């Protein structure tokens, strides 16, 4: 009764029989029989029912034996690793159950000099899963896989191998303690990781053949290429996510300094404060402080700290605020040492201004450090799906401090453009924050490009952008215009509804989220042209979007009960709550539908917020519900604004009254009407 009339059915072997046949082949004494069984197992392993049958018959143990034996380091080993990964992804068996000899054997494939190009990405992927899921085995992987080996893999042209090496690297960093992470990152930067990510260099070229072997200490084929960020091939979503994680973990090392207030009784920190003062006033201090008594020298220091822009007579009190804590002092000292002329010019220039127009360097630096920490999300947990990394971050060492050096000079420039006084300090900081945020959103590829773009964005330009955005958002509020907009809304909402349904008909690739939030499997979903059926099915990475006829699964729109979003979705609700799930809450939606007498769900994780809005709007329109997303509101506002302006083109420069003109009273007689019944001679 559940089979729809006209459905095309494909008869296949029952999962238990298929599993029994495949496992029998794996136990075959002949290499050819084992190879054929692995080829049959790989496409079937993604099916949950079949996987359970294989696992219940100790299939994982048999695969582990094949992988550990390593009799064939070529395609057979690659098939064994692929099948093992597919079966483990179902979450039936915990990664913590893997044996230490098995993990060490997989590690040996990563460390081996002569290895098939198709095997090492799979081995790296398996070790990444082990590291993320099992702290104990993660420590084993960390001790067995040298960081230098991962750096070798990052230098190859093979993008898949690069991506999986970066994935294991970020997994190892995430599993390390703060001290271990700092030690590992320091070592990686010394070993030129940043150059491998950002700069042009020589690379080991591994050709398209999966049977390409090369020793790690020599180049079999050399090629000059732009590594990872500037690669000729487009960067994949997975690599972008791992670069985001690497950036977040590196910036996270600043968090202890950001959370630590200055200790006024710490001699080292007091000396650093004095060094900051002396860098600006040393010549003046020497000429005026020589031979002075202790009281006079102390008074001179207090005055100079005031000129530096500290609010309290004891500068340590200004740095007791957390955040930014000691990080603000680190930034100021870095600026004074690496840009001494700009530092002296900033301090002396403001010292010569009137008190009310003086831009306080120390106060500005403290607040600016807070702004940068917020914009760069320092100290916040890594998102599990974000890809928002800044290429500029990998363009040079000490990127945070270098960014501060650019920002503090921008602040001084903006202060002068605004002709600000001490009372305008918060207003200036708001403008500088906007300048920095707008420029970071452009993702400049280098610090110099960032400097150029942010300096072009002057205070006047910020005001112009604000005015333009306000006009686009507000429009006119005259009653006749509001009445016109209300009359236009139904027509324009129909246009938006039509666009949303067309978007559903085009279809989209979605990523599957497993129990460990991996996103390495894709599936495609689209709406049939007659808007009556949702069709969907799994697709391979990098493959072209499938045709409507090739999608195996169908869901009639008539069977859909409701659309669920955010925390109401079953696939998000099962993961628990926490900050790390916030990004999934914002992109998750599900369709509940009738599956026989039970309720079933089709679960989605949208690639972006915009796609989330478009699909939830389209499904709402399909179900006859209101399209209430933020994107619909913005689209409607844009269409209303354009349509209203087009309707009012002929009334340009004509004032529109607030109230319609009064209707005159009717005439006393209607003799002026023409009588059409009278024929003319």
UniProtKB/TrEMBL annotation:
<dbReference type="Pfam" id="PF04727">
    <property type="entry name" value="ELMO_CED12"/>
</dbReference>
<dbReference type="Pfam" id="PF11841">
    <property type="entry name" value="ELMO_ARM"/>
</dbReference>
<dbReference type="Pfam" id="PF16457">
    <property type="entry name" value="PH_12"/>
</dbReference>
<protein>
    <submittedName>
        <fullName>Engulfment and cell motility protein 3 isoform X3</fullName>
    </submittedName>
</protein>
<dbReference type="InterPro" id="IPR016024">
    <property type="entry name" value="ARM-type_fold"/>
</dbReference>
<dbReference type="InterPro" id="IPR011989">
    <property type="entry name" value="ARM-like"/>
</dbReference>
<feature type="domain" description="ELMO">
    <location>
        <begin position="268"/>
        <end position="440"/>
    </location>
</feature>
<keyword id="KW-0581">Phagocytosis</keyword>
<keyword id="KW-0053">Apoptosis</keyword>
<dbReference type="InterPro" id="IPR050868">
    <property type="entry name" value="ELMO_domain-containing"/>
</dbReference>
<keyword id="KW-0729">SH3-binding</keyword>
<comment type="function">
    <text>Involved in cytoskeletal rearrangements required for phagocytosis of apoptotic cells and cell motility. Acts in association with DOCK1 and CRK. Was initially proposed to be required in complex with DOCK1 to activate Rac Rho small GTPases. May enhance the guanine nucleotide exchange factor (GEF) activity of DOCK1.</text>
</comment>
<dbReference type="InterPro" id="IPR001849">
    <property type="entry name" value="PH_domain"/>
</dbReference>
<dbReference type="InterPro" id="IPR011993">
    <property type="entry name" value="PH-like_dom_sf"/>
</dbReference>
<dbReference type="InterPro" id="IPR006816">
    <property type="entry name" value="ELMO_dom"/>
</dbReference>
<dbReference type="InterPro" id="IPR024574">
    <property type="entry name" value="ELMO_ARM"/>
</dbReference>
